[in-house]
Amino acid sequence: MVLLGKQGSGKGTQGKRLATHFRIRHLSTGEMFRDSAAAGVHAGLEAKGFMDRGELVPDELVVAVVDERFKNPLEVMPGFVLDGFPRTKAQALELDRILEQNPIDVVIDLDVPTDVVVERMRARGREDDTEESIRRRLELYDTETKPLVQFYRERSILERVNGLGTEDEVHGLLLAAIATRFTR
Ligand code: AMP
To answer: May I ask the CATH architecture of the domain 2-182?
Structure first.
């Protein structure tokens, strides 16, 4: 499955819970970059400059990292929650190529109003959560990532879930939304 949603919508927290629930992998491209930057790995350091400014990491670099993960079946079997990828149309098309015969079952649009995610990002205070980068990321979400909602809706694999509420409430809504995909 794929989780779409603004930064601060709870994709990371909920993605981890879903992965635990379904005993599948949680794959976050942001986390991969943060880990590899901390380890001094080249791709991570290159990505960090973009991340700190609230820019998107270039598609080629992101796709190379995801491609590498998917080459190892142990990383993606028996399934996965993709959190923060794809974020552009180009990445969505690359994901189709990478997945080949194993298409995505469900894409979730975790919906939280902008003023709420801004407050959450201010509160979490991650290194890349400056006022300017928060503003820039929301702008890029609208222009680059939001069109993917329609892209997946046209494939009839999109579920919108209200991301306001307690962590447990949202988790429950996510499980219910996912269940409808498999009982139709
Ligand atoms: P996240 O952990 O999902 O909040 O991502 C943190 C940062 O990593 C983002 O602000 C981007 O700079 C970068 N990033 C993560 N995933 C992607 C992606 N799929 N495409 C481009 N940049 C990404």
So the answer is: 3-Layer(aba) Sandwich (3.40)
